[in-house]
Amino acid sequence: MESCKTNSFERVYRSIYFGESPEMFFPSDVPVDLFYSYTTCNSTALDGEMDKPTHSVLGGVNIISLSTDIPPMAYKRDDAGEIIRYSNSGLWMNEYKNDSIPFEGFYIDYVKELMKLSNGDIATVNYTHPSNNAKSMHPESSGTAVIQDIADGLVDMAVGPFWITGERLRLAAFTLPIVYDKTVLVIPNPKSTPSALTASASKVFHPFKPGLIAVSCLIILIAALLSLWLVNREKLAAAYGRSLRDLNTGKRNIGFYGRLALDSVLQKSMFFFGAAVEQNELQDTGAPLSLNILMCGYSFFILIAVSAYVANLAAFLTSETISTVSTMQGAVDAGMKICAHPALKEELVIKWPLAKISVLDDYEAKTCQVMAIGREDTEFDETLLERFCRLELVYTDSLVLETPIAFAINPKFASGFSYWIQHGQKFEQVSIEQSKKKYQPSLSCNVELKDQGQDTEDHPQITVLNMIFPITVFVFCAIIAVIVHSSKRLHPKQFRGRSLYNAGHSSGVALQQVKMNAGKSDNDSGEDDWKENEAIDTEKNGHSGSTLFIADRCEIDNIARRVQQIVVEELENCDKSTEKRRTVG
To answer: Is the peptide bond before 72 cis (omega within 30 degrees of 0)?
Structure first.
């Protein structure tokens, strides 16, 4: 056989006459592997005919099948026409065990269509009830209990919406999937929740992720504190009519510095909210190069942040308010406990490892806030949907899991039955979707969130990653500003006559002239104070009195008093001169 596979293009078959399997014509305890080919020794059999597909894939097989008990998928009726369900104890009722009562439902109709399509290849499908033992082995899932009977060899197939899960594949084979079940999030109806005023008011924060809001606040704080460090604080103090140092102790006035910091933060916040940077502020304070660089980066960040915020805000303000979580990711992030079917727990844990999963019955016990429920096995179950109405629950469009649904089946029938499923779907318009069209539930409420005008899709929020470029520009400008300012402090002579010093030159000269005039009238005390202050200022600023600054409030007060004294003296002299002229006249 190996030689034929390797050195020939002949078609080779394994013999079905000899072997260990009891299905062989001549079963033997001794394994006998025989292979043959129709093209060897010039056989008259046409190999081309053997390649033709045949519509006798099962050979008229008779199948004993179980069925689910979910109306209108598959169910039985009693003599009064009422649907038979298994009892509250979890065991099937006696009427349900009566195999003479036929099954009804669109899954049963679908199998009938496949039998008709097969033209006798699927000869019969006889339905029976599950065993009590299987139900006791799997009390949490009637579907898994049904598949257990296939694993034990009691039946050949199970008809119904059976999820293909890892646990069930360990018990039995499955046919080709007939449909894919979408497990979605089921939540309390938002219209049944309390007033959504708080949710509506909070929409102004929704365009940005919380992390980006925190970063924006941090940038405002950094811009405020750095600008206070870079600006001429003496001029700010003079504008407030305060001193940077305590008049009694000579130490820094911490309270006044705190006031300056608070005002700077409020100012930069107003710049951010107003989407602008005040130009007059930069001009009036004689802004140095370092401050201009910082404000350039801050302005760029404001431009991008405010533009993005405004563009995204309209979508949130005009959307319907949902005052509860409406997505699976939202439920996981909120740490909510999610009720789900036990058969899907393994798959849910794999896809949502951080989710808190519980069983469905826990919802009415108030131990979980939302549910993850499959649409395929519930959207036609009127009993369950009426419970939704009573509990005021609705389906969302948030996909939790997508699971294939198929018939559990004995492995020897899986391939043949799957052939007819695929053939019907592809060529004959025979599918489960066609069979369910005539079964539409009649409910007392609407269980679809999207049909109530609610917007179940989360609008994308702007994240820190989306704003990484303007944030980087601001950080770069802030670093350059710090370097420039530090260089000026380390090498003050290189910056003489520039920026703040030029801005204060005219006022410094004017004050110097006032001092000189004041010194003429008070040589004893004024001259000593003048020289002392000039020496301090020269030592502090590294340049002569031509660009002198008056920083101390006490000194300003002294000058004011001296000016006032000079004015009074001049007025008195003027009055005396006038009086003398009148006397002479």
So the answer is: yes
CA distance 149 to 171: 9
Report the candidate in 215, 48, 218, 67 with the shortest Cα–Cα distance to residue 129. Answer: 67
- Do residues 74 and 146 touch, judged by C-beta distance below 8 A? no
- Dihedral sign (CA 450, 389, 324, 353): negative
Q: Give the integer Cα–Cα distance in Å for 495 and 492.
A: 5
Position 508 scores a pLDDT of 44
Tell me whether strands 76-77 and 26-27 are parallel, antiparallel or unpaired: unpaired
Q: Which two tokens stand for residue 477?
A: 């400008």
Q: Which of 76, 477, 47 is nearest to 302 (CA)?
A: 477
SS3 of 261, please? helix
Rounded Cα distance between 383 and 381, Å, is 6
3-class secondary structure, 490: helix
pLDDT, residue 361, reads 66
Share of the chain above pLDDT 90, in %: 18
CA atoms within 13 A on the CB side of 505: 10
Q: Cβ contacts of residue 137 below 8 Å, gap of 6+?
A: 145, 148
Q: What angle do CA 166, 397, 422 make, to 5 degrees?
A: 50
DSSP annotation of 495 reads G
- DSSP reduced 3-state for 549: coil
Tokens of 345: 């727990």
Angstrom distance (rounded) from CA 549 to CA 551: 6
| Closest of 212, 251, 299 to residue 474, by C-alpha | 299
Q: How far apart are CA 313 and CA 94, in angstroms?
A: 62
Single-letter residue type at 110: Y
- The model's confidence at residue 281, banded by pLDDT at 50, 70 and 90, is low
CA-closest candidate to residue 186, choices 447, 396, 453: 396
Q: Whose CA is closest to 188, among 370, 366, 50?
A: 370
Alpha carbon 220 to chain centroid, angstroms? 26
Average pLDDT for 6-23: 64
Residue reference for tokens 């970063």:
215
Radius of gyration (C-alpha) of the chain in whole angstroms:
45
Bridge partners for 186 per DSSP? 371, 395
Q: What is the pTM of this model?
A: 0.54
d(C-alpha 164, C-alpha 183), whole Å: 13
Query: By CB neighbour count within 10 A (0-12 exposed, 13-18 middle, 19+ buried), where does 227 fall?
Result: buried
Q: Which residues contact 322 (CB under 8 A, 6 or more apart)?
A: 190, 196, 199, 454, 455, 456
- Residue 414 CA to residue 425 CA, distance in Å, equals 16
36 phi, psi to nearest 5 deg:
-145, 165
| DSSP codes, 416-474 | HHHHHHHHHHHHS---HHHHGGG-----SS--BSGGGT---SPPPPB-TTTTHHHHHHH
- The mean per-residue pLDDT over the stretch 410-423 comes to 93
Mean pLDDT (whole number) for 133-159: 88
Number of C-beta neighbours around residue 59 at 10 A: 11
Which residues, 6 or more positions from 533, have their beta carbon under 8 angstroms from its beta carbon? 550, 552, 555
